[in-house]
């Protein structure tokens, strides 16, 4: 239960951070991706801030045997660069560039933006569902 | 560059970093949104509840921020509904195929110095940038 509350608090902070940062405004996200036009570098500062905090905290925390609320650290262990990683990132990037939405800001915007975010999230979940269905049939 | 807002962006980033750091420090988890949401489509016992709490927090925070500062949310449509559908499918499928999105790879993975996450992040930013160029050529400015 303690872990559930931390997860809830983290989700809450995450969405507040996204809204403060401007990531719940798709035109701002598209402006960040618009390197060859009217480039808005703001979102690079979001990454700098988030990665800065994480880099310090991760370093301190991962020296421990286990997380503060027990269990174990569940970190990705793969190091290979396979086609799924690359193709997945390309597909995601294209969708991100079209809509200006990635998963976190889209879920955060469900109420504030209304219909467009609802459409986007519904279809995004469908895309995740389609992946689940075809996952076993994809080449290794 | 007239839309440049480095200070709120940095503050927002620090808050996001706090959120992802809490997840690792207390729960030992990477806070990747596509992974957290995606695994809820086929929930396994004992692994679903924290995800529901996280997504609930996201929604709750979103509603709170919308009530406090509605201008933080863009209400007008960026693209046509048809394009939004295409984009949503690509984001949903692509993030699961590629094992993460902006949060899992871009924020958490790079913080762990993961080469996979760095490659993923460079790839999706490049793909997004190329897409913005192509969509402008095809249908004008946003």
Secondary structure layout:
The complex is a heterodimer of chains A (140) and B (142).
Chain A lengths: L1 H20 L4 H8 L8 H20 L21 H17 L3 H6 L1 H4 L1 H20 L6
Helix pairs in contact in A: 2-4
Chain B lengths: L5 H22 L5 H6 L10 H20 L12 H17 L4 H10 L3 H25 L3
Helix pairs in contact in B: 5-6
What does this structure look like?
- The complex is a heterodimer of chains A (140) and B (142).
- Helix content of chain A is 68%, strand content 0%.
- By secondary structure, chain A is mainly alpha-helical.
- Chain A has one domain.
- The longest helix of chain A is centred in the N-terminal third of the chain and has 20 residues.
- With 142 residues, chain B is mostly helical.
- Chain B contains six helices and no strands.
- Chain B has a domain of 66 residues.
- At the A-B interface, α1, α2, α3, α4 and α5 of A face α1, α2, α3, α4 and α5 of B.
Q: What would the principal axes of the Cα set say about the shape of chain A?
A: globular
**Assembly of the depicted chains:** heterodimer
Write down the Rg of chain A: 18 Å
β-strand number of chain B: 0
Task: Indicate how many domains the architecture of chain A comprises.
Answer: 1
Strand content of chain B: under 5%
The N- to C-terminal Cα distance of chain A equals 38 Å
Number of helices of chain A: 7
How many β-strand stretches of chain A? 0
Strand content of chain A: under 5%
The low-confidence runs of chain B, each spanning 5 or more residues with pLDDT under 50, are: none
| Class from helix and strand fractions of chain B | mainly alpha
The shape of chain B, in one word, is globular
Helix percentage range of chain B: over 70%
Spans of chain A of at least 5 consecutive residues whose pLDDT stays below 50 are none
Rg value of chain B: 17 Å
Coarse structural class of chain A: mainly alpha
Mean pLDDT of chain A: 95
């Amino acid at each position: 239960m303690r872990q559930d509350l931390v997860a809830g608090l983290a989700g809450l902070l995450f969405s507040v951070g996204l809204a403060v940062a401007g990531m719940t405004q798709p035109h701002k996200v598209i402006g960040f991706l618009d390197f060859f036009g009217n480039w808005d570098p703001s979102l690079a500062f979001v990454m700098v801030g988030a990665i800065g905090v994480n880099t310090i905290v991760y370093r301190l925390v991962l020296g421990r045997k286990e997380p503060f609320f027990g269990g174990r650290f569940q970190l990705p262990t793969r190091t290979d660069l396979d086609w799924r990683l690359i193709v997945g990132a390309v597909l995601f990037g294209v969708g991100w560039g079209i809509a200006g939405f990635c998963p976190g800001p889209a879920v955060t915007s469900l109420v504030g933006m209304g219909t467009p975010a609802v459409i986007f999230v519904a279809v995004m979940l469908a895309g995740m569902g389609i992946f689940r269905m075809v996952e076993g049939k994809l080449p290794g | 560059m007239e839309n440049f807002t480095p200070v709120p962006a940095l503050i927002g980033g620090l808050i996001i970093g706090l959120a992802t750091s809490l997840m690792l420090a207390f729960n030992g988890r990477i806070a990747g949104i596509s992974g957290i949401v995606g695994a809820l489509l086929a929930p396994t016992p004992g692994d679903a509840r924290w995800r529901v709490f996280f997504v609930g927090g996201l929604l709750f925070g979103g509603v709170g921020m919308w009530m406090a500062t509605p201008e933080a949310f863009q209400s007008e449509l960026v693209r046509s509904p048809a394009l939004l559908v295409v984009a949503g499918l690509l984001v949903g499928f692509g993030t699961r195929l590629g094992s993460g999105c902006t949060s899992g790879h871009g924020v958490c993975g790079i913080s762990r110095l993961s080469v996979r996450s760095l490659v993923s992040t460079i790839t999706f930013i490049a793909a997004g940038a190329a897409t913005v160029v192509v969509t402008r050529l095809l249908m004008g400015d946003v």
